[in-house]
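Justification of resources, computational component.

The compute hours requested in this renewal are based largely on the per-chain cost of generating structure records like the one below. Each record pairs the submitted sequence with a full structure-token output. That output is archived, and it is also reused by downstream analysis tasks.
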Amino acid sequence: MQDGARLQLVPGDWSAPAWDPDGTGEHSVAAQREAVARLLDAGAVALGAFDENRLVGIGVLLPHIRPGIAQLAYLHVSNGYRDRGIGGRLSDELERIAREEGHAWLVVSATPSLHTVRFYEGRGFRPMAEPLPELFELEPEDVHMSKKL
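The structure output for this chain reads:
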């Protein structure tokens, strides 16, 4: 749970079900494709990680959400491929792109799981005392974090 820049550990299960390959609900492949497509239509940059021909990770950077601020808008690594450095490499490359585009800050709305928050903290992100209202409105239960580039 986030209270300004302070985090409090709250027991709970924040894991999402596996993506449904055939359905159209929130946790379906179709919904994830649509979410990424919307970001790309808004000017985002997407990078993928592959194991041979299989997409196993994807990261999306939405530049210029505010002057000097980009958003790490989407980062997912497939189950079975996590904790192998794929998310870190995607994050590193998206940070590099953000810096090259002149951004001073990168923000992320992180799922409030201990694993996810620790991942971002390990990458230099810190909880924001005042989350960006437009991102907080979309994901009020997330942990809103930022990183100086």
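Residues 39 and 62 are 7 Å apart (CA to CA). The chain is about 30% helix and 30% strand.
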